[in-house]
């Protein structure tokens, strides 16, 4: 598959059989999303063929073969209801009574995949949280239809889901495959891949470089098979203890959220319990007025990059330098050379996979778009960084480098408010506030910051520590 001079897929050969769950693994930009878009008929390959159970090629043949896709970049229409969104891929929902049938199908799918959910078919998608929208899109992928689902492609399906909801999905994937369905499971959360995959295919630079049954891989062996993304050499850093770098209190919110200079504060708990809203309120309260543009007090790394992050008509460079443009300007004129140097520096530091920073932002994979948003905030001089699940869809190698950068910036006195649905990320923090029903249910420090304590506080209210 070529896009101009870029070869996105280079001789990929892949077979999927009933009952299989194929884990498709690789760094951001390895070609995974391109491969599945060729399989589902969204892209016509430059060379080669895709063969389904039925005859023909393209998206119509893929639908007739029972191929469904759940995209990393959620494709729901925000102005439509949940049931109306189901009608878009299910072309048989027409005529009198289609709403009733759509309502029943999506309700059954949500109940099956996510028992205990609080979603209603008549809810407008734009009013849902990111996690709820991801749940709806997954349910649409598995919903009953005129043609039953035979192969469901899940591209980073748990990136916005908390651990308990993700577990429900993984249980359903295993059950679906045990009943003869097939799944392509793309995820940077390697533990989930080992949980559900029967076979793991590793992609690198548009090729499948390794393909083996799951039990023939170890987690470290899989990381080694993926290879490493070349980045600039890490700076030599002197590790500082939390006590050495944490200073005076720099923020306090009405919810009881506090943070000190140089502290990494985590927000955790079940998704949709007020964490993102608390971050948004704080960010908006500290980012008003003309002074904020040139000397920002706080910057924001969006988790929902499509809605809150990227400027889709702009280049990679302009997206990356957006918050620093006032500092790069003199009398309203941007210093283009300084902007280019800043973009090139962050391209190397965070491993943005592009040959030209002036390419459109949408030419990047979803994970690389997220890296641009990360670079945009860290390149600023703001002393406080608010992060709303910033590692969504980012590969394991980049995550580790990002953790190092966050610790290095904290050592320089920067404060981080970090909401994440991944326990591994929350455990990188100095202090963690667990949210339940829009309130802080517990404040964890030191050895208390682990999965057991976080889950306990997610279901039981406790008084935060004084």
Automatic annotation (TrEMBL):
<feature type="domain" description="ABC transporter">
    <location>
        <begin position="237"/>
        <end position="462"/>
    </location>
</feature>
<keyword id="KW-0547">Nucleotide-binding</keyword>
<dbReference type="InterPro" id="IPR017871">
    <property type="entry name" value="ABC_transporter-like_CS"/>
</dbReference>
<dbReference type="Pfam" id="PF00005">
    <property type="entry name" value="ABC_tran"/>
</dbReference>
<dbReference type="InterPro" id="IPR050107">
    <property type="entry name" value="ABC_carbohydrate_import_ATPase"/>
</dbReference>
<protein>
    <submittedName>
        <fullName>Ribose import ATP-binding protein RbsA</fullName>
        <ecNumber>3.6.3.17</ecNumber>
    </submittedName>
</protein>
<keyword id="KW-0813">Transport</keyword>
<dbReference type="InterPro" id="IPR003439">
    <property type="entry name" value="ABC_transporter-like_ATP-bd"/>
</dbReference>
<dbReference type="GO" id="GO:0016887">
    <property type="term" value="F:ATP hydrolysis activity"/>
</dbReference>
<keyword id="KW-0378">Hydrolase</keyword>
<keyword id="KW-0677">Repeat</keyword>
<dbReference type="InterPro" id="IPR003593">
    <property type="entry name" value="AAA+_ATPase"/>
</dbReference>
<dbReference type="GO" id="GO:0005524">
    <property type="term" value="F:ATP binding"/>
</dbReference>
<keyword id="KW-0067">ATP-binding</keyword>
<feature type="domain" description="ABC transporter">
    <location>
        <begin position="1"/>
        <end position="230"/>
    </location>
</feature>
<keyword id="KW-0762">Sugar transport</keyword>
<dbReference type="InterPro" id="IPR027417">
    <property type="entry name" value="P-loop_NTPase"/>
</dbReference>
């Amino acid at each position: 598959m070529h896009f101009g001079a870029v070869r996105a897929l280079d001789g990929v050969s892949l077979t999927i059989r009933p009952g299989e769950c194929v884990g498709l693994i690789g760094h951001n930009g390895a070609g995974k999303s391109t491969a599945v878009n060729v399989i589902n008929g969204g892209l016509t390959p430059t060379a080669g063929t895709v063969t389904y159970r039925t005859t023909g090629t393209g998206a119509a043949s893929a639908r007739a073969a029972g191929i469904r896709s759940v995209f990393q970049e959620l494709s729901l229409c925000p102005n439509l209801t949940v049931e109306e969104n189901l009608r878009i891929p299910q072309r048989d929902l027409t005529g009198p009574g289609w709403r009733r049938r759509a309502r029943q199908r999506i309700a059954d799918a949500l109940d099956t995949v996510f028992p205990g959910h609080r979603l209603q078919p008549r809810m407008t998608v734009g009013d849902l949280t990111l996690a709820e929208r991801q749940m709806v899109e997954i349910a649409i992928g598995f919903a009953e239809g005129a043609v039953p689902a035979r192969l469901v492609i899940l591209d980073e399906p748990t990136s916005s889901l908390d651990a308990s909801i993700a577990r429900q999905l993984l249980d359903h994937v295993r059950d679906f495959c045990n009943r003869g369905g097939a799944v392509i499971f793309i995820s940077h959360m390697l533990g989930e891949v080992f949980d559900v995959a029967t076979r793991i295919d590793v992609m690198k630079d548009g090729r499948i470089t390794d393909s083996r049954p799951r039990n023939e891989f170890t987690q470290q062996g899989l990381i080694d098979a993926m290879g490493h993304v070349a980045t600039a050499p890490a700076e030599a850093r002197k590790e500082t203890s939390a006590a050495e770098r944490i200073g005076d209190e720099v923020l306090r919110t009405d919810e009881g959220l506090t943070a000190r200079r140089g502290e990494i504060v985590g927000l955790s708990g079940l998704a949709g319990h007020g964490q993102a809203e608390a971050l948004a309120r704080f960010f908006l309260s500290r980012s008003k007025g003309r002074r904020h543009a040139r000397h920002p007090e706080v910057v924001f790394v969006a988790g929902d990059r499509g809605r809150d992050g990227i400027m889709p008509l702009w280049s990679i460079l302009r997206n990356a330098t957006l918050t620093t443009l006032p500092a790069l300007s003199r009398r309203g004129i941007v210093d283009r050379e300084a902007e280019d140097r800043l973009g090139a520096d962050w391209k190397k530091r965070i491993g943005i996979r592009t040959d030209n920073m002036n390419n459109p932002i949408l030419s990047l994979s979803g994970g690389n778009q997220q890296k641009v948003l990360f670079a945009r905030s860290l390149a600023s001089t703001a002393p406080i960084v608010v992060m709303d699940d910033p590692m969504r869809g980012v590969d394991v190698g980049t995550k580790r480098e990002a953790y190092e950068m966050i610790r290095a910036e904290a050592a320089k006195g920067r404060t981080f408010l970090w909401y994440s649905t991944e326990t591994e990320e929350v455990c990188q923090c100095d202090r963690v506030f667990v949210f339940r029903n829009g309130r802080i249910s517990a404040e964890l420090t030191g050895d208390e910051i682990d999965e057991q304590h976080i889950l306990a506080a997610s279901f039981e209210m406790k008084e935060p520590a004084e």
